[in-house]
Amino acid sequence: MKITLKPVGNVDNRIMEELREKLSQIFGCPVEIKSGIDSLEHAYDSRRRQYFSLLLLNNIKAKGIAKDERVLGIADVDLYVPELNFVFGEADVNYRAAIISLYRLRQEYYGLPPDEALFLERALKEAVHELGHTFGLEHCSNAGCVMHFSNSLPDTDWKEAAFCSRCHPKLKI
Ligand SMILES: [Zn+2]
Ligand SMILES: [Zn+2]
Known about the structure:
A 5-stranded mixed sheet has the order 2-1-5-8-7, with helices on both faces. A 3-stranded mixed sheet has the order 3-4-6. The chain is of the alpha/beta class. The chain is globular and about 45 Å long. Strand 7 and strand 8 form a beta hairpin. It has a single domain, classed as Collagenase (Catalytic Domain). It contains 4 helices and 8 strands, in the order E-H-E-E-E-H-E-E-E-E-H-H. The structure holds zinc ion (2 copies). One zinc ion (ZN) binds next to loops.
């Protein structure tokens, strides 16, 4: 099994590297960074000023995914699906692909002073959560488990970047 990370639009290399290293520790498999999606214009909704998550996820899937591979797209723009104001991420379980957005994970977004460590921790949790779905996991009722659904950042900050003892054995790696 292997995990591939793909930048969706412009994403700071340092963030990609940090996630690559932490994800390989958590999932215990090789994690590679490969070229992703350069142009995002087709997914932009000028009225919402956001990018349609599903279209970008489809672009990732269209590039092909090996049977033993899980692909995570990482975007630094605001993502939405029509029925919600925004999404932190989305997974396509059948196609073994997922996408996350870093956009709302920074303290600055909320008018607060920057906190790089907190930002990276949040990014890691969102990445582990969406990849968890691609490895067959569903949402978990344990608020401390990474598979708990995050409706807001306080939910994300409360949970750990790790799978609880009930979820961990179900991971199909
Ligand atoms: Zn989820
Ligand atoms: Zn759990």
